[in-house]
Amino acid sequence: MSILLRIYKLSLQIVNFFFKIIPRNEKFVLFLSRQGNEASIDFQYMIEDMRKRYPKYQVKVLTKRMEKTNVIQIICYVFHPFVQLFYLAKASICIIDGYQMAISCVHHKKGLKIVQIWHSLGAVKKFGYQTLNTKRDQSWAKIMNMHKQYDVIVSSSEAMRPFFSQAFGYPEDKFIVCGLPRVDYLKHTVQENRKKVYELYPELKKEKVVLYVPTFRTYDEYKIDELIQAFEESDYKLIIKIHPRMKIIVDKKYTYDAVTSLELLSIADVVISDYSAISIEAAILNRPVLLYIYDEERYNKIEGINTNLYEDLKGYVFKESEALVHTINKGNYDRNVLRAYREKYVVEQESATKALVDAILKDVK
Q: What string of H, E and C letters represents the secondary structure of 63-104?
């Protein structure tokens, strides 16, 4: 595999060498992502703001989810970075929300500004260089220049800056602290999202809703059945939003697939998570957050946790489903705990989108 990676990296470098003759457009902004096949909310808000306030800039979006489910999908993705290289040769700014081979594996023309905004509102769980636990992982990361070539990296808060620094392998002064555009989305679309959810699922209007959003695990340990059983005698309606990479089947009466987890936050009375940054997104909407971390020791050993969960949400961290549901049924959630959590991990801004766009376009010719 190492040999194949080296050959692929070399092919990118050779193609990029010839693409360098393409003239650069000083007003061309390129957005790249492999998190999905469509522009994320963060990208959508940034693009809309650029077109409104900086109409002279030309914007191009290339998104393609990197699937690992079969050989054909992998082969299809292998050719995508070559397309990215063509547009990178033309761009003056490139904005990404994850690792991109076309960014890190080649040397770009002088003057290209590369901005990493990442795709999460926080680093509750470890990622990047924090998770290179084996010699094989470390070798592959070195070969593929993981997270290299960045000029600016965004940290969602001062408290998260050290964790992002470790994950990306850059000094803390390389980061700017700014909220992601999804903060604006969450604040401004509550009514719109609630209307959408109720139109699709009118039966939820009369329910008190608990939204459970477990994060993805590389091992199969999802105690969803236990949680469902614990809610059988509760007045709350349990909704379970499964991570797209989770290969488990949940009874359809608990899933609402026509809407996203962020849209479901608009109708949630309570949110249950674990090591996911959706706990921060829920706090933005002032939704009571509880953590169900039945596998804390195993998860921390295999994946890794950055933040002190027990300190951040004191009194609302559980390993047993019965105790969790009992606390929810009791009510009396301490909003001061939630407010402190929100203030720690979400930087206060009038508009996160405008602040981020201005920071990116600063000093660009």
A: ECCCCCCCHHHHHHHHHHHHHHHHHHHHCCEEEECCCCHHHH
**Total tally of structural domains belonging to the chain:** 2
pLDDT band for position 365 (cuts 50, 70, 90) = very low
C-alpha pair distances (Å), 60 with each of 66, 132, 186 = 19, 33, 25
- CATH code, 163: 3.40.50.11820
Residue 76: pLDDT band with limits 50, 70, 90: confident
Closest CA relative to residue 169, chosen from 132, 137, 216: 132
Q: What is the pLDDT of residue 244?
A: 76
Regarding whether 308 and 194 lie in a shared domain, the answer is yes
pTM: 0.93
Domain region containing 138: 2-179+349-361
What's the whole-number mean pLDDT along residues 209-216?
A: 95
